[in-house]
Design brief:
Layout lengths: L19 H4 L3 H14 L3 H18 L11 H13 L4 H20 L27 H9 L7 H15 L5 H4 L7 E2 L2 E5 L6 E5 L2 H8 L18 H25 L8 H11 L5 H4 L1
Antiparallel strand pairs: 1-2, 2-3
Helix pairs in contact: 2-3, 2-5, 7-10, 7-11
């Protein structure tokens, strides 16, 4: 699961002076309104994650609404205990609670909830895991050399995207699927990270070219033309579906390699960051 808290936009003028329209809002209705706001801003991944956190809270409540006057410290402590009884990890529980806290603070800013702190005294900090799964250099080469001649194309594509991620020093999938041939110039791949806006430049190796050549299509400059929808919302849906299929196929590849843990694109990033960051890309190829 993603460990980063969803960043919600600060309240806008549309919430100011809403008065009677918002007076009857409970926590769930308000949280759902934040989901819609995220969608209106084109932040579909954040919207879907927040919706998931709300659904989990509703499952605990056993009903579809809780008034702000009943949203108190006892409710949150009991919810925290309920989450622990679901055998969820500490960081996952903290993620659920932190996102509820963020929504509640926005409701306070909008004048819908009392300026109290029902989360007071609850440790919801994220603890960095000491051990992160990542392939060794030999395992990366084993994955590269697997005979996939009898496997579906989506499994081959998943392997290629995993290797592309490692070869590009842990590039994120949302950046990979935005790449075009214009990003390649003078023997380097240069792009701006979608999340940070930071410009990254790495050598464009022959192995990267070979992977890109397998997915080259006429009529588009994208290196991996898998996102074809025009509307941002449909683009996100395509991306989300592709990501799930890639990770499903990678899990199968991990089982073929008998790794002992699920293989996914997060492992690809950790493989570079934690295992092979001290070597050159050419050492992997």
């Amino acid at each position: 699961m993603q460990t980063a808290i969803i960043t919600l936009s600060p309240p806008g003028d549309s919430w100011r002076g809403a008065g009677e329209e918002l007076e009857g809002f409970g926590f769930i209705a308000y949280a759902n309104s934040r989901v819609e706001k995220l969608r209106d801003e084109g932040r579909y991944d954040a919207a879907n994650k927040l919706k998931m956190y709300i659904r989990r809270f509703i499952a605990y409540l056993g009903k579809n609404e809780v008034p702000f006057k009943d949203f108190d410290a006892l409710l949150i402590r009991n919810y925290h205990t309920w989450l622990k009884n679901q055998e969820l990890g500490r960081n996952t529980i903290s993620l659920y609670i932190r996102n509820l806290k963020r929504v509640y603070r926005l409701a306070v800013d909008d004048g819908l909830a009392a300026d109290s702190n029902p989360f007071e005294g609850m440790d919801v900090s994220y603890r960095v895991k000491k051990d992160r799964n990542g392939l060794t250099l030999d395992e990366v080469k084993r994955l590269r050399d697997l005979d996939l001649s009898g496997e579906p194309q989506q499994v081959v594509f998943a392997r290629d995207i995993f290797l592309f991620t490692v070869y590009t020093k842990g590039m994120r999938s949302d950046d990979i699927f935005r790449l075009t041939r214009k990003n390649i110039k003078n023997g380097h791949l240069t792009y701006c990270q979608h999340i940070t806006g930071k410009e990254i430049s790495i050598p464009w190796e022959q192995a990267l070219q070979e992977i890109a050549d397998r997915y080259k299509q006429e009529g588009t400059t994208r290196l991996f033309p898998v996102i074809t929808a025009k509307s941002p919302r449909e683009q996100w849906r395509q991306y989300d579906g592709i990501l799930h299929r890639i990770n499903y196929s990678l899990k199968k590849l991990g089982e073929m390699m008998e790794l002992g843990y699920p293989l996914n694109l997060t492992v690809a990033r950790h493989s570079w960051q934690n295992m092979v960051k001290g070597i050159r890309i050419s050492d992997i190829l």
